[in-house]
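Dear support,

Our group has been running a series of protein-ligand predictions, and this particular one with pyridoxal-5'-phosphate is the one our PI (initials K.S.) wants archived with full inputs and outputs. We had some confusion internally about which version of the output was final, so please treat the block below as the authoritative record. The input we submitted was:
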Amino acid sequence: MTSLVSSIRENYLHTLDQIATAARKSNRDPQDVRLVVVTKSQPIEIVQAAIEAGVKILGENYPEEGVTKIQSVPPQSGVEWHMIGHVQSRKARLVADHFALLHSLDSLKLAQRLDRFAAEGNRILPVLIEFNVGGEKSKGGWDASDESNWNALLPEINSLLDLGHLRVHGLMTMPPLETDPEQSRRFFLRLRLLRDHLATQLPRGDWRELSMGTSADFAVAVEEGATLVRVGTAIVGARRYKSDAEREA
Ligand SMILES: *Cc1c(COP(=O)(O)O)cnc(C)c1O
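Confirmed final output from the archive:
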């Protein structure tokens, strides 16, 4: 094992350990939480080392960068690829063709495009719906910062369930950046309560997944019900380069 592989492995196992501790603390089964290792803006060597270290799910933010990486690792490596970043309309086909789960479905228009491309590719694309629970202008997703507006979201969310080649499995959020992870708890709680609301109001949907928590706050997210956490820097270190999309932003 190279030192890169063993250090990623050590960080990965330590993160799994922290997830298990947080799950038990809230009387949850640690098996109900999946760890997505975020390799955006990391070179392919890091992806290969992460796979060798035993990582099972990799998360990417930019479709083209993600597809390049997907195509450069052997399919028999058995790793699952998730798209976790904003998808521009013109990149929708890449996502529909190559990813096992889209965490960040953030508009009806994108949903309709993905549905069309998934239909053409003869597949069903699993997705999570992104909600903006902090109300920041810079963040994507349906604005769910004000509980009194949740019912107004229902018709559009309901229409997502009608798209035959998308399959909604739950919710995702990227809350405001806080210095103290405890400050993020209310946002994670809000996403969980919204999930419970959708499950009651739109019972034909599958609302089981909650994708929330990053390196800074995944333990708090697990305590509040996360079923998927997205952890990058704590496992694979600081990002090495800025991708085109980040430079554009
Ligand atoms: C980059 C990113 C992460 C991971 O952040 P870290 O701080 O590196 O753990 C998680 N989710 C999304 C949507 C991201 O863009």
